[in-house]
């Protein structure tokens, strides 16, 4: 029986990064054993049996073999069971406020991912508008509950652990879609929040370079390690290491680059 919970994860997955951030905040980065799953390969049958057939990660296996799924659920479980003090707000009303903000992460995340994966240049503007509307809603929420600060409360907490990995993934929108928050006052509060989140030392598990390179195929509509036509390797592979690969072309509304041009071909980067 393992001595600590196991988290099956994909290292650069934002949903798993939430867990790493939380453990970092608690000062117990080693409270769980992280086991890497390479989603570009067929899923291990033993793990599939444990999850009863679902493939989404992260998945937590408790010390006695019980399974928890969904990053927000795992986050709360680890917040309550790992030493280092609760990172969620202790006050019930304040906790309710942070849960209201966290409830906005699903549509926000989905809007950014569908934007980057969109292949129809004519639909680009409507994806951008949808995302900006959600940014404006976050801005308004922060103005109501935390007008003068940086974070939702005094410190980087649960809501920040949830959103920071998403803000980081959205670097793929800067790169492949030229997306920027407009320099308008209606985005000032969320801009300040995002900057403080991205600057926090607990959120250093990945980098803009890694995200831009690994998510290249997402910009062509191929998510979760799936293969684009003419390619033998997904950009989501961990070998060759992203640091050895060139920065990908930023143009996404044309034919995708080859394995060789992305530094993925056998022997490249070695
Ligand atoms: N709502 C889930 C989303 C998890 C999710 O979509 N994970 C992706 C990786 S970033 C995944 O496992 N994709 C592979 C698959 O679904 O088979 C959560 O918050 O845990």
List the helices and strands and how they pair.
Elements: E1 6-9, H1 14-26, E2 33-36, H2 45-50, E3 59-61, E4 67-69, H3 71-81, H4 92-102, H5 105-117, H6 124-145, H7 158-169, H8 171-177, H9 188-198, H10 208-214
Parallel strand pairs: 1-2
Antiparallel strand pairs: 1-3, 3-4
Helix pairs in contact: 1-3, 1-7, 4-7, 5-6, 6-9
This protein binds glutathione (GSH).
Descriptive tags:
single chain, 270 residues, mainly alpha, Glutaredoxin, Glutathione S-transferase Yfyf (Class Pi), Chain A, domain 2, 3 domains, four-stranded mixed sheet, 4 strands, binds glutathione
Mean pLDDT figure: 95
For the report, how would you describe the main beta sheet?
4 strands, mixed
Overall number of strands = 4
**Bound ligands, named by name, code or SMILES:** glutathione
Question: Outline, from the CA principal axes?
Answer: globular
Distance between the termini: 38 Å
Helix share bin: 40-55%
CATH topology of the largest domain: Glutathione S-transferase Yfyf (Class Pi), Chain A, domain 2
Query: What is the radius of gyration computed over CA atoms, rounded to a whole number of angstroms?
Result: 19 Å
- Going by helix content, strand content and strand pairing, the class is mainly alpha
Bin the strand percentage: 5-15%
Multimerization status: single chain
Strand order of the largest sheet: 2-1-3-4
CATH A-level architecture of the largest domain: Up-down Bundle
Tally of helical runs: 10
